[in-house]
TrEMBL record:
One of its GO terms (cellular component) is plasma membrane. The lineage of its organism: Bacteria, Pseudomonadati, Bacteroidota, Cytophagia, Cytophagales. Belongs to the MreC family. It comes from Fibrella aestuarina BUZ 2. Keywords: Cell shape, Membrane, Transmembrane, Transmembrane helix. GO terms for biological process: regulation of cell shape. InterPro entries: Cell/Rod_1, Cell/Rod_MreC_2, MreC, MreC_beta-barrel_core. This is Cell shape-determining protein MreC. NCBIfam families: PRK13922.9-3. Residues 138-285 form the Rod shape-determining protein MreC beta-barrel core domain. The keyword Ion transport does not apply. The chain crosses the membrane at residues 40-61.
Amino acid sequence: MLALGASTRRPKRQQFYDLYPPTFRRVEQLFAFIAQSRNFILFVLLEVLCFYFVVNTNNYWSASFFNTSNRYAAQMLAWSNSAREYTNLRQVNADLAAENKRLTTQLTQRQQGSPAAPTAYKADSLFANRFQFTVAKVINNTTTLANNTLTIDKGTADGIRPGMGVISPTGIVGRVRFCNEHYSVVTSILHSEFRVSARLVKAEEIGTARWPGIDPTRMTLVDISRNKPVSKGDSVMTSEYNSVFPPGILIGRISEVRTQPAQPFHDLSVALSTNFSSLLYVYVVDNKQAEQQSQVEKQIDSEK
């Protein structure tokens, strides 16, 4: 019986093969490849050894190898840094948007606290700090329609309400129209019904900016008296006569000046400062005193 049991016992190698057949097969294939390619592998090792001795015993080849290896290493490092920077662009853009929000808030507070005027007027802190900003990302945008809109990734859960103004780091964008909890639709300034009170800075004249519905890079500025001197390149900004946008937000610059006979106003074309085709981040403007201003102005209408 013992002899019979001993004769049926498998060798340890066969037991390992039964337990791990794929692993065992790969190991056998690896050793078989090394055995078949031993001459080539020995040749490569000898070449590497010769190269090592040549570089380390000859000053010219040592310097050449050092310079060449450093050049390729620097190139590889540059490619690696470029790839890393590209993958971090989303976070960089978000950080820049947050920083622009902080700077825009500070600038608006300074402008509202001490407006550029020849009087000694100085606003109180409540009025100067009435504008607050929320960073939002544009997730949909149209520029080729007669009435264009944007969609942003902030809604009522973030304090966004219909009627709020929307600006970008380069100028005005539009006004919030609809909201749900996490998204909002913005009426773009590239809309047939959009109007905004604008100030021609150099001429110190107030007019109305509107989009004629043709070129997404141009608006029209109307109601500017032809008696006022106007030149190409003059800045057009939001005026103090609206509660949606802070005053002093750039709209664009005069690109064409036309004067029609028997007309009391200039016909001005404004090159928009905001490039809507590449718009990525915007700031939603919350005027904390807009409701109080609206209530007071409604009393005038009720008395008529």
